[in-house]
Amino acid sequence: ATLSLTEGQTYRFDQSNSPNSSHPLRLSTTSNGTHVGGTEYTSGVTTAGTAGSTGAYTEITVPVGAPTLYYYCTNHSGMGGTLNT
After folding, report:
1. For 27, which of 13, 40, 41, 76 could close a Cys bridge (C-beta 3.0–4.6 Å)?
2. DSSP letter string over 18-63?
3. What residues contact residue 63 under an 8 Å CB cut-off, 6+ apart?
4. CA atoms within 13 Å, Cβ hemisphere of 72
5. What's the DSSP call for residue 68?
6. pTM of the complete model
7. Could you report the per-residue pLDDT of 34-85, keeping only the tens digit for each?
8. How many angstroms separate the Cα of 81 from the Cα of each of 19, 28, 52?
9. Residue 14 pairs with which residues in a beta bridge?
10. What phi, psi does 19 have (nearest 5°)?
């Protein structure tokens, strides 16, 4: 799925549901992230806890001028989508 994010706004992706335990969400400027040689995008990004555990999340405060970002699962190639900024 493609999501649209607004610069300067903060978005929290709740990762606390137990099925997320094997699907940690991360961001990259490369589609499919580290699975294809990209790097994790960390500007304005906070992660907390372990995916699948109470209180776990990935949060981004979208920087002004942020590039198009992609969300991906660190464990499984092909699980992700686009974040238009």
Report:
1. 41
2. GGGGG--EEEESSTTGGGGT--B--TTEEEES-TTSTT-EEEEEPP
3. 7, 43, 44
4. 22
5. P
6. 0.92
7. 999 999 999 999 999 999 999 999 999 999 999 999 999 999 999 999 999 9
8. 18, 10, 20
9. 57
10. -60, -15
